[in-house]
Amino acid sequence: SDREQVVELSGVVKRYGNFTAVEPMNLAVEAGAFVTLLGPSGCGKTTTLRMVAGLAAPSAGDILIKGARVNDVPIHKRNLGIVFQNYALFPHKTVFDNVAFGLKYRKAAKAQIAERVSRALDLVQLPQMADRFPNQLSGGQQQRIALARAIVVEPDVLLLDEPLSALDANLREGMRVELKKIQHQLGITTIFVTHDQSEALAMSDKIIVMNQGRIEQEGSPEDVYTRPRSEFVARFLGNSNLLDGQVTARDGNALRIAVEGLGEIQADSEGTEAPQNGARLRLVVRAEKIRLSSTPQDKTDATRLTGRIETVDYQGQSARYFVTVGTHSLQVINPIDRRPFGQGAEVSVEIRPRDVVLLKPE
Ligand code: ADP
Ligand code: MG
To answer: What is the domain range of residue 106?
Structure first.
C-alpha cells in the first residue's frame, strides 16, 4: 500500500549479554493503523516496544519514525504517547495536571493547555474529573486518564503495553471497545502489546504473532486466525485440533487426506502450495469449524464422520465438547440450538474442506 510508514524497524536486534531477546526484526506500521504485537510472556513484545519508545537501545538495526532514524533520539524527543502497565499517574498531581504534563513540558500556552486537556477528558468520557487525584479514581478511570495523558500531545505514535491487563474482565472488555473507538476517531498510529488473543483479534488492523523473539506470522486478525502458517500460531490463537495425515488423492485443489485412526478427510489447498500425492502433512481444524449434528446433513460437501460425545462444557450460548472419533479426541465448539448434546450421545461430525488448514510437518 502507498500509505506512509510511521514506524519502521529494520533488522532490529536486542541482546542482553549472550541472550537474544529480539532476533533481527523487520516491521512496518502504516499511518493510522492499529498494530498488535501478540505472543506468550517472554517472547520479546515489551522489549520491542521499549526500543520504539527509546527506553532501550537496539543492539543492531535501525528504528525509523516518520522516515527519520531515531536510534539516538531520546524518548522525550520522539513525540510518542505511552501507556504502559506500570507507567502510573503522578499520585500528587490532579487529573488535570497529569493530563497537562506533556503540554506543559512542551511549553504550550495556558489557554491551549486548558482547551486540549478538556478535549482529551471529553474523549475518555471523564470531563468532570479534572480536580480529582488519582487515588480518588477507580482502576478503569485511572487507565482512561493515562490514555488521555498520552493522546493529549497528539503523538506521532501511541505505544500501549498491556494497558488493560490490570482491569477486571468486564471492565477490560468495555475499555477495549472504547480504546479502539478513540484510536479510530483520532486516526492515531498505534502499537499495542498483549498476550491476550481475544484482545488482539477484537482490536487490531494487523496482528504480529511473536514467539521467542521472532515474528511467526503477521496479517489481519482473520488472516492469522483462519490461516495459521505454523503449529505455534494454530495453538496460540484459538482452539485447534492438530492431525497428521498423508495425501491419498489430488484433483486440482481438492485433496483427500488419510488420517490414521480417524479416516479420510477432504481438504482444499486453495491459497497454499498444493502438496503432492503421498505427501505427509499436518492439518489444523478449528474447534468451532467442526459441526456436530444428530443426523448427517446431506447437502454439504463436508467430510462426514461418526463420533461419540466424551465431555460437555456448557458455556451458555455455546458448548465445548470433546468428541471421540476413531482413536482421536476432537475438540468442538458449537452454538447451542436448543440443548447441548449429552455425554455419550452419538453424533455426526462434519468438516468442510475449506476449514482444513494445511501445514508442513515440522
Ligand atoms: P514480553 O513482553 O513478551 O513478555 P519481554 O520483552 O519483557 O517479553 O522479555 C523478553 C525476554 O527478554 C525475556 O526472556 C526477558 O527475561 C528478557 N529480558 C527483558 N528485559 C531484560 C533485561 N533488562 N535484562 C535481561 N533480560 C531481559
Ligand atoms: Mg511484556
So the answer is: 5-234
Q: Please give the grid coordinates belonging to residue 356.
A: 482444513
Residue 87: the pLDDT is 59
Q: CA 52 to CA 191: how far, in whole Å? A: 10
Tally the domains of the chain: 2
Ligand closest to Cα of 39 equals: 1
Average pLDDT of the residues in 79-88 = 83
| Residue owning the nearest CA to atom 5 of ligand 1 | 44
Q: What is the pLDDT of residue 216?
A: 97
Helix, strand, or coil here: 131? coil
CB under 6 Å to ligand 1: residues?
16, 21, 39, 41-47
Mutate to test the pocket of ligand 1, among 15, 46, 194, 236 (most ligand atoms within 8 A of CB): 46
Q: Assess whether 37 and 105 both reside in one domain.
A: yes
- Asked if ipTM goes beyond 0.95, one says yes
State pTM to two decimals: 0.91
Beta strands 34-38; 190-194: pairing state: parallel
Residue 106 has pLDDT above 80, yes or no: yes
